[in-house]
Amino acid sequence: MLGLALAAWLVPVLPVRAQRFDLIGVALSGIGMFLLVFGLQEGPSAGWQPWIWAVLVAGLGFMSAFVYWQSLNRHAPLIPLEIFRDRDFSLCTVGVAITAFATTAMMLPLIFYAQSVCGLSPIRAALLIAPVAISSGVLAPFVGRIVDTSHPLPVVGFGFSALAIAMTWLSIEMEPDTPSGGWCCLFAR
């Protein structure tokens, strides 16, 4: 509620201009993403049967058709592919995707570990990962200014290194026979 109120107060009203809606792009990307996510989620429970692989291949086909359609659609593409000609933008996009994948992949096992091994409630397990979001929100403006005034490579290198060290430490620490003390004791009952 607070976010909606602040958005209504702080976000300026911009002039609206009529644009075409890329219905074909929406359909292709929506179907493609649905098939990919469905195949990946249902694959383990279905034993990766051939129909799951067919669903995944169909999803890749729809996503490929989406990219091809975006290259043809000059009027109102959902994703203007010209932006990927900028090397810095493309590298940043790949970096953000890798970081998001690694961070998301870290959260689920961490939540399960906190609940099953450390005995935390779901609320306390969620509080365990809250510092990730809080630190990202607090540090983003400062890191943005650093990247604006200097070369981004050392900043990105430090960020990737810190993420790799943290994930390595967690993979070593999160063993079933690890005592539930240590870092979990901060959130214990």
From TrEMBL:
InterPro entries: MFS_trans_sf. One of its GO terms (cellular component) is membrane. Its main location: membrane. It comes from the Bacteria. The chain crosses the membrane at residues 51-69, 89-113, 125-143, 155-172. Signal peptide: none annotated. Keywords: Membrane, Transmembrane, Transmembrane helix. The keyword Membrane applies. It is a multi-pass membrane protein. It is found in: Membrane. This is Major Facilitator Superfamily protein. The lineage of its organism: Bacteria, Bacillati, Actinomycetota, Actinomycetes, Mycobacteriales.
